[in-house]
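Annex B. Sample input.
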Amino acid sequence: MSDRISPLRGLRQLGAFALALALLAGCADKRDAEVEAFLERHWAEPLPPQGTPPAEFSALEASLAPEACGQCHTEQYAGWRESLHSRAMGPGLRWQLLLMSQEQGNRCLRCHAPLAEQKALIALEHGWPNAPKQAPPDFVPADLGHRGLACAACHVRGHERFGPPPLGEVAEGGPHGGFTVSKAFEDSRFCAHCHQFPDDGPRLAGKLQEDTWAQWAASDYAKAGPGGQTCQSCHMPDRQHLWRGIHDPEMTRRAVDVKLELVDLGGGRHEAVATVRNVGAGHHFPTYMVPKVELAFVRRDAGGGAHPLGSQLIGWQVDTGITREIADTRIPAGEARQFRQPFAAPAGDWRVELVVRVHPAEHYERIYRDSLGRAAQLPAAAVPLLRQALADAVATRYELLRVEAGPAGAATPIAN
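Annex B, continued. Sample output.
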């Protein structure tokens, strides 16, 4: 039996204002159910083929090529082309597919190349048993399997176009029969299809290996009204198709506040205390096991001498086989964590510098290096892809910021 107050009973007991609130809540519940129903259809597993295009469609309207969408949606296409979504089928995944069965590969393609047409092309490429016997139709470009999370993966089902409510007037009689509007495109749950494993998904140390949406849902960012933010409001501001995250220095700087203090322990012993607060990420910083943030402590003498004191990592550290947790120092949204580095220092003029470096692909770097050590056991075609994957992963590293503190002072930011 529902404990929701009925409208008539609410009017008698709580007055017209409370009734209005109850009705609004009812509307919100209805909208919520509509979003859930839409997402259940939109992200059905596996996604069905598009089928035959409508007879009135031109070749451009029917095409699943991102460039076809870019003919009209120029800004969205330009953003997507620079995004990680467009590179979701990079060498880091392609070398692994050479070692996988079709069933194993499809588990990766669920997010990296989710369209049925993409999976068919990749099955043909690898000679998997369920590959289609006929050539792909004309509306499927030959390279679609390597285009990652293409436009159609989010916006096209059965050749029907879907998108968020328009920001302005939409002209009638547009291409591909217009589009179907859904508020789901503005809802964080839209992103959960790839950025949240189900409860029965793979875990390590009791933690889901992909848990970003649940981290957001547990934070203040998920609350309605002022202060609340969706995935899209941070990662798609003004509907930009960039999806910037920890690979982007500006985005990462907005996510954290870093302070450095020195504690005199006596007898020439000291402790550098770095306090890192997650002030701008609506989920853990960093959210899952691949990225790491390195805190490197260095004592600098007045004469310019540099003496490394040690380094610590922020992140979920696991072994390359993903069988053992080493440490989990991620910082939930709105929370802070301290990292302490003891050291000895002589009397005199010196300061401690904290260098914050970001390794967006640290876990992959270790996997790729380990795998290259066994290159002789890999298919020959996998090795060049693996080497390129490692080079690409290393190239994502960057220095985020530096702060310094003297024995009697607080931290001072240093411009990069």
